[in-house]
């Protein structure tokens, strides 16, 4: 999601033309439930495995074998060519609405939406609705209907995100963490904060997806989008794919981990011969992203790994600086960075942590969440089942 000139509070959206279908499906309390957050790069899915003493239930005139459905999902941690179940993130014995059960987390690459639809097809005789948020909830609405006979119930993206964060913080004690000593010359330490949702307010949520949205959360009901940028995870993957030929986000991250961005970027020391001490700018600070690539000899020496790392640093620094500016304008100290761009991406987390801490003079810390990327999908379940 890219930035817009003005920001305004957002409203939850439930299409009225299928409200009866929602009400009808909600009455069956023994069925499994899916929530999807279909972004431009990744489709995130949560599956609520409700507690039931029954092996089979009746739904829509069909007999549904719950055990077979459970076995299909739990027998593997991969689905098709891009589906992954994050088994380490599973939450046991949580309550949503009036139901108790286990919450499972899965993701697919959006351009391989067929995999997500195949997974949903395993359940299309259980329920004719799937809960969804994100841009893909609108883009793929007709595909789900025509291919599976399934209605996508659309929920507002920003509200779903915040509701999901609040729910996870309520149910997971070791969820918020930060990096101590994030400078790349030091050994970082991952430290957890124990904060109840009510004590976190107010805070900024920086949601790094294909683009970036920055949301000010004063309370669970007082939510405002205050900024954003079109330079996000999609930018990183797009530029890295263009420059190096990688075809997936995981490949791009793996390549960047091996690179040296200083062979691509122009640093303060390249301009001043060292640090710019008058204004506290260290020589290692990036003065111009890709600033060395106008020189033939520099281009010849730059490897694919270096280009990938420079892409990552460019995007991450941009997100960090805009987030910190929004925090200052909003007079907020806590900044929560979320989104699948950060999943298994310690480099970007450390870069964000260092940038926020350095430019704020230690007043702000970049905070991260274990379940990043899945909050929107969780939020659809909460809004529907509550």
TrEMBL record:
Q: What class of enzyme is it?
A: transferase
Pathway assigned to this chain's UniProt record: Cofactor biosynthesis; coenzyme A biosynthesis; CoA from (R)-pantothenate: step 1/5
Q: Where in the cell is it found?
A: Cytoplasm
Pfam families cross-referenced by the UniProt entry:
Fumble
**Which segments of the protein form a coiled coil according to its record?**
none
Q: Which GO terms describe its molecular function?
A: ATP binding; pantothenate kinase activity
Ordered alphabetically, the record's keywords are: ATP-binding, Coenzyme A biosynthesis, Cytoplasm, Kinase, Nucleotide-binding, Transferase
One of the record's GO cellular component terms? nucleus
Provide the family line.
Belongs to the type II pantothenate kinase family.
Question: What is this protein's name?
Answer: pantothenate kinase
């Amino acid at each position: 999601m890219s930035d817009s000139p003005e920001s305004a509070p957002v409203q939850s959206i439930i299409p009225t033309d299928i409200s009866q279908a929602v009400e009808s499906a909600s009455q069956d309390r023994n069925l499994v439930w899916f929530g999807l957050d279909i972004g431009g790069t990744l489709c995130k899915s949560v599956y609520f495995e409700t507690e039931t003493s029954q092996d089979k239930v009746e739904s829509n005139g069909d007999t549904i074998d719950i055990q077979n459905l459970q076995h299909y999902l739990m027998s593997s941690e991969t689905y098709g060519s891009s589906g992954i179940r994050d088994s380490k993130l599973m939450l046991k014995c949580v309550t949503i609405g009036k139901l108790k059960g286990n919450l499972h987390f899965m993701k697919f690459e959006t351009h391989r939406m067929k995999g997500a639809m195949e997974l949903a097809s395993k359940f299309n005789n259980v329920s004719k609705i799937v809960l969804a948020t994100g841009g893909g909830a609108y883009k793929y609405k007709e595909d789900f209907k025509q291919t599976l006979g399934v209605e996508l119930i659309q929920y507002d993206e920003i509200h779903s995100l915040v509701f999901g964060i609040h729910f996870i913080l309520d149910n997971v004690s070791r969820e918020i963490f930060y990096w101590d000593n994030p400078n790349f010359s030091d050994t970082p330490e991952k430290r957890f904060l124990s904060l109840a949702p009510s004590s976190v307010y107010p805070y900024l949520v920086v949601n790094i997806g294909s683009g970036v949205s920055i949301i000010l959360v004063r309370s669970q009901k007082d939510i405002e989008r205050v900024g954003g940028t079109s330079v996000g995870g999609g930018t990183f993957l797009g530029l890295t794919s263009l420059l190096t030929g990688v075809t997936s986000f995981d490949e791009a991250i793996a390549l960047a981990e091996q690179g040296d961005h200083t062979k691509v970027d122009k640093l303060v020391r390249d301009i001043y011969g060292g640090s710019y001490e008058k204004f506290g700018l260290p020589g290692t600070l990036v003065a111009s992203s890709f600033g060395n690539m106008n020189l033939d000899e520099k281009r010849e020496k730059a490897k694919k790994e270096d280009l990938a790392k420079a892409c990552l640093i460019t995007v991450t620094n941009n997100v960090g600086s805009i987030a910190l500016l929004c925090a200052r304008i909003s007079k907020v100290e806590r900044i929560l960075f979320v989104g699948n761009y950060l999943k298994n991406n310690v480099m970007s987390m450390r870069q964000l942590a260092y940038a926020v801490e350095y430019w704020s003079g230690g007043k702000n810390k970049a905070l991260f969440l274990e379940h990043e990327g899945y909050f929107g999908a969780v939020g659809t379940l909460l809004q529907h089942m509550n």
